[in-house]
Amino acid sequence: MEITSEFIHNNQYSLSIRFSSDGFSLCIYDEVDHLISKKTVSQSLFLLKEKAIYDLIAKEVETQLEFKNIRLICESDIYTLIPNVFFTPEMACDFLYFEREKSKNESELYSQLPVWENTLIYSLPTHLQNAIKRVYPNKHIEHHLTSFLSKVANDRNASGLKIWTRSKMLDVALITNGKLTLLNSYTYNTPEDYTFFVLNIFEQLSLDIETCKVDIYNLENNSEIKNLLQKYVKELIVID
Known about the structure:
five-stranded mixed sheet, globular
C-alpha cells in the first residue's frame, strides 16, 4: 500500500519503528491496532555513522508524516532488570556494567515496568541513539523487551513461558501467577538449538512439560521451530 499525506491526513493511525543491528522496519497500524503497512530497510546500522543513519531514517516517507502515536523500539542484547526499590538513574550505568566492560560508544537508557515494579536498563550504540533523537527529539526509545513485556503484562494472572523470537535470538520470560520471575536471552542458530534452550529451561526450573504453557511470539505458525518444539512441549501456542 502506498503511503501518502492524503492517506494519513486526519486519521487515527500509529507508526512503530523497530531498529536492530541489521536495519529497521516501519509499521503503520489503524485505529484498532491492525497492521496495514510494513516496510523493512536492510542496513548494518551499528556499523554506520550517525549522519548516515539519520539520512536513512529521515528519507522514509513514514517519518515525514504525522501520526496519532509513534513508538520507537530498539533491539539490544545488553540489558538488566532491577527492582524499583534499588534503582536510581544515577546508578543505571553501574548496574548495567556490573559484569562487563562498557564500550566508549554505548549509551544507557531505562524503561519502567510498573506492573512488576522493575526497571529495565539497557544500552544502545551512541551514534544510533543520536540519529534517532535527531528525527524524533521528544520521543522515548523503548527496549524491545519493554514492548514485548507490555503485551505479556495484559494478562495479570498468566503463568508460563513467554518467548519473543528474533533472528538468531530468543528472549524468554517466565511468568508465575502474574509475576515476572525470569528474563533472559539466548543465541541460537538452528531449530534444534532453539528447542534445546527451551527444554533446558524446563529442566533447570523443574517446570512440568505436560502442563506449563509456552506462548511464542513473532514466529511463523508453520515454522520448523514450532514443529520441532511441539514434539516435546504439550501446551504450545504461537501468537501473532
